[in-house]
């Protein structure tokens, strides 16, 4: 991986390897060591492999988009709202706020819109996102951090105060919520 963060190319490559392994397992399951009919398992493995392949292909396209190899429309065709740096300061309350960091599907749509006849203005991902990304984290990472913070708070409620012996009053290494002389 590229340091702490996985690149989209690396993600596409890893997904390709997972797809291959799932197909290999499906093939191996055709002749198990024990006489058990595994047709449903084989079908499931093959179906999952197909889903993983589609996701890997999408990540490959996304890698090309993010690298700047694919032209993107500067605005969403259905609403004419800008995205990326151009969306800063725009009011899109009906759409949940400005789209500064677009989703995978939004980027694919912007790539498709850039190819449409009648041509709209185009840009590349690096141009549109110049100056964005410092301190940004995905919704999934933010949700995981909230779950971890909640787990820490729950654990703190289980600790016993070293001075008064009451449970649920002390944070890890912190003071008791009760009063001590």
What report would you give on this structure?
The chain is mostly helical and 181 residues long. 47% of the residues lie in helices and 2% in strands. It starts with 7 loop residues before the first helix and ends in a 24-residue tail after the last helix. It has helices at 8-28, 39-67, 104-115, 125-128, 139-157, and strands spanning 72-73, 122-123.
What does the secondary structure layout of this molecule look like, with pairings?
Layout: H1 8-28, H2 39-67, E1 72-73, H3 104-115, E2 122-123, H4 125-128, H5 139-157
Antiparallel strand pairs: 1-2
What labels would you give this structure?
two-stranded antiparallel ribbon; 47% helix; mainly alpha; 181 residues
Helix content: 40-55%
Helix count, DSSP H or I runs of 4 or more residues:
5
The overall pLDDT average reads: 82
Main β sheet profile: 2 strands, antiparallel
In short:
With 181 residues, this protein is mostly helical.
């Amino acid at each position: 991986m590229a340091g702490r963060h996985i690149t989209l190319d690396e993600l596409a490559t890893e997904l390709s390897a997972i797809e291959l392994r799932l197909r290999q397992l499906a093939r191996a399951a055709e002749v198990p060591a024990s006489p058990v009919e595994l047709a449903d398992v084989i079908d499931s493995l093959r179906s999952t492999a197909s889903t993983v392949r589609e996701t890997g292909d999408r990540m490959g396209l996304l890698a090309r988009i993010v690298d700047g190899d694919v032209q993107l429309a500067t605005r969403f065709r259905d609403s004419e709202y800008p995205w990326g740096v151009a969306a800063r300061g725009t009011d899109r309350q009906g759409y949940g706020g400005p789209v500064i960091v677009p989703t995978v599907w939004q980027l694919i749509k912007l790539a498709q819109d850039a190819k449409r006849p009648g041509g709209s203005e185009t840009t590349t991902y690096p141009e549109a996102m110049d100056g964005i990304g410092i301190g940004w984290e995905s919704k999934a990472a933010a949700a995981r951090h909230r779950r971890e913070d909640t787990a820490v708070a729950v654990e703190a409620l289980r600790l016993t105060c070293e001075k008064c012996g009451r449970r649920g009053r002390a944070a890890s290494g912190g003071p008791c919520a009760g009063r001590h002389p």
